[in-house]
TrEMBL record:
It comes from the Bacteria. The keyword Signal applies. This is Excalibur calcium-binding domain-containing protein. It comes from Maliponia aquimaris. Keywords: Signal. Residues 1-18 form the signal peptide. Residues 198-218 are annotated as: Disordered.
Length: 234
């Protein structure tokens, strides 16, 4: 009995001498709160307001009403913006009235459509209308081309009047009309057409005073009547 009492007393003495272990979770603030105030986000907001020179309560952001991105109104607005017409398109729904049908656009005649004509008039009225249209026809008779005011040579008329191809000699030429003289003479014209006009105005094709037609075919400085003849078909 005495031995048991001694063991108990020794255990109590040892526990009294051992240092107390502190509670590691004691006095630790909740992560969502701080010491002496509410949540940390409220503290940060107040601190920011103080730094900016503001005071009073922090305004609360209003609620934002969100709409579904695939709603009919959103699709209609997107289509109107894309078309850049300023008018929202009509949403296709079973209850919408059908769009108007254009029977005939302005400027398009329906006279060749038997169904369209028979819907507006009968055969007798159509025949009378055709006769009225024929009475209004005006035939323009062809007239002669006006004469050139300057009276100079006409290379188009000359091309159509002649038949010989380029290079076929028809007229006699002087031996003095050498190729070198021909090249120097043709260099003074901006185009073969102008050279041919001057050649005809100077007595050509029978005469070649300037050495423009040394081979005697009647065509100066490489001028070719073939394009004008092709228009006529000859």
């Amino acid at each position: 009995m005495r031995l048991s009492f001694a063991v108990v007393a020794a255990a109590l003495a040892v526990s009294a001498c051992a240092p107390s272990v502190p509670d590691s979770a004691a006095n630790v603030p909740d992560p969502g709160t701080g010491v002496g105030f509410g949540s940390y986000s409220d503290y940060a907001a107040r601190r920011e307001a103080q730094l900016n020179g503001q005071s009073g309560s922090i305004p609360v952001a209003p609620d934002v009403a969100a709409a579904a991105l695939d709603s009919a109104e959103a699709r209609a607005a997107s289509a109107a913006i894309a078309a850049n017409s300023g008018v929202a398109p009509v949403e296709a729904r079973p209850g919408n009235p059908p769009p108007p049908v254009v029977a005939n656009a302005r400027g398009i005649s329906g006279e060749n459509d038997f169904t369209a004509v028979s819907a507006t008039r009968d055969i007798a009225a159509d025949a009378a209308m055709i006769e009225r249209n024929r009475a209004q026809y005006t035939l323009v008779a062809p007239e002669a081309l006006p004469a050139r005011e300057d009276g100079g040579p006409n290379i188009v008329e000359y091309a159509l009047r002649t038949t010989n191809p380029v290079g076929t000699a028809l007229y006699k030429r002087s031996v003095l009309n050498t190729q070198s003289r021909h090249q120097r003479a043709c260099a003074g014209y901006a185009s073969p057409d102008l050279a041919q006009e001057d050649f005809l105005a100077s007595g050509g094709p029978e005469k070649d005073r300037k050495g423009l037609d040394p081979d005697g075919d009647g065509f100066a400085c490489g001028w070719n009547p073939a394009p004008f003849r092709a228009v006529r078909g000859g």
